[in-house]
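Retry 2 of 3 after timeout on previous attempt. Resubmitting structure tokens to design endpoint.
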């Protein structure tokens, strides 16, 4: 299964935020949208960074609640690892495991077209495995 197939089913909606927004507002957005990460976009909607709930927990522990007044741009991770829609679920599972993160923005020709989370990957893999198992059962029953 490819990233494109996952996006066709879940849609290409990506929650984005500007780097100048206050961290407190990013926290509200994460809670409202029930998501674990927001893609930070700069001029021309290019990916400028990613802000995950883990970043927020880390800065709160290091700097205390005053950090909520700071701008997202000073807290986000800048070197964002992305994937393309032609890649397979196996490719992106390997990348997430190697880098130890749970979100991969999907970028085509510098344009953000979606985001895949570890939750999306696990859901699709479970569906695939169930499909294979059902096919095997049917084969055995009719053989
Ligand atoms: P996560 O496990 O995705 O919540 O993120 C754990 C850490 O990795 C946080 O510091 C994130 O900012 C960072 N991170 C998450 N996704 C990516 C990504 N695609 N590229 C680079 N860093 C990321």
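Retry 2 succeeded. Sequence:
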């Amino acid at each position: 299964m490819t990233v494109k197939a996952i996006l066709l089913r879940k849609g290409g909606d990506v929650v984005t935020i500007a780097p100048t927004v206050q961290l407190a507002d990013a926290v509200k957005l994460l809670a409202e949208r029930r998501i674990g990460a927001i893609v930070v976009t700069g001029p021309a909607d290019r990916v400028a960074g990613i802000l995950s709930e883990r970043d927020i927990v880390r800065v709160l522990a290091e700097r205390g609640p005053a950090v909520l007044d700071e701008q997202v741009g000073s807290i986000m991770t800048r070197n964002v690892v992305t994937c393309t829609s032609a890649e397979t679920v196996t490719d992106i599972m390997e990348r997430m495991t190697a880098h130890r993160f749970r979100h991969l923005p999907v970028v085509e020709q510098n344009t953000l077209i979606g985001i895949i989370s570890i939750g999306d990957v696990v859901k699709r893999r479970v569906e695939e495995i169930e499909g294979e198992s059902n096919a095997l059962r049917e084969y055995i029953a009719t053989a």
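Attempt log closed. The longest strand covers residues 111-117.
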